[in-house]
Amino acid sequence: MTTQAVLLHQPESDVSDSSIQLTITQMIDEMIEQLPDPKHLTSAQRRGIIARYSSVLEGNFIYWMTATLIATKAEAARPILLDNLLEETRDSHPHMMRKFALAAHSFPTDKDALAVHEDLTNMRLFLGRLSGTQSLLTMAFFEGFIQKFMPFLADLAAAEGSTEMEYTDVHGVCDIEHTAGLFRALAIETSIDPIAPGTDIYEGVNLLRTLINRIVYYRSELAAA
Ligand SMILES: [Fe+2]
């Protein structure tokens, strides 16, 4: 078999096995390691991170998981996403998110929403393309990142005087199982709809990393200067 033929006949395990999970885990760990120390940030900077995170998560997480469900062709993968959406809706995670932001005096303003506008739009347009495998990997990355981001987010809120930690407590635990579930769904999806040669499986992951970096590192005082 030629190299070209090998590339065209990649088995499902090539995109669903531990190598992709390992890459995703390494990406997440690098991002977490680089996070600033909340104590070294100003109160305005801490508030800004919570506000931009909340601006993205509150109204978009369920929408993006729903877009991923619509994009997923494998019937057997869909219950995993439905379980996730059930939990989000039944326990009202958007309400949890809003309570968290309000208690930390970090409810997003129009400026916070506009600071993430462009990168958020890129994610919306990407998910609108309804590529099952790419969307599933993106959401697996998102769940994994969120879970490891929770201690940092909780520290920011605590430094702003908040004791309302239901959002960070819940997501520091439940997203471990959600991440594993999404990788299972990805394996099922790729078994019936293999990634076409030349497709960048990490396209959505990279768009999401850009958005998260915007959330964490955007400085309004620099933008205004
Ligand atoms: Fe959630």
Spell out the key features of this protein.
225 residues, mainly alpha, Heme Oxygenase, Chain A, 12 helices, 0% strand, globular, disordered N terminus, binds fe (ii) ion
Précis, in short:
By secondary structure, this protein is mainly α. It has helices at 3-8, 13-16, 18-33, 43-71, 78-90, 93-103, 110-115, 117-128, 132-159, 166-192, 203-217, 220-224. It has one domain (15-224): Up-down Bundle (Heme Oxygenase, Chain A), CATH 1.20.910.
What does this entry look like structurally?
By secondary structure, this protein is mainly alpha-helical. The chain has one domain (15-224): Heme Oxygenase, Chain A. Helices cover 76% and strands 0% of the residues. It has helices at 3-8, 13-16, 18-33, 43-71, 78-90, 93-103, 110-115, 117-128, 132-159, 166-192, 203-217, 220-224. α4 runs antiparallel to α6 (93-103) and α9 (132-159) packs antiparallel against α10. The chain is globular. The model is unreliable at 1-16 (pLDDT under 50). The chain binds fe (ii) ion.
Order of helices and strands: HHHHHHHHHHHH
Mean pLDDT, nearest integer?
A: 90
CA-based shape: globular
Largest sheet properties:
none
Q: How much of the sequence is in beta strands?
A: under 5%
The level 1 CATH classification is Mainly Alpha
- Radius of gyration, CA atoms, in whole angstroms: 18 Å
Question: Which architecture does the CATH hierarchy give at level 2?
Answer: Up-down Bundle
Strand segment tally: 0
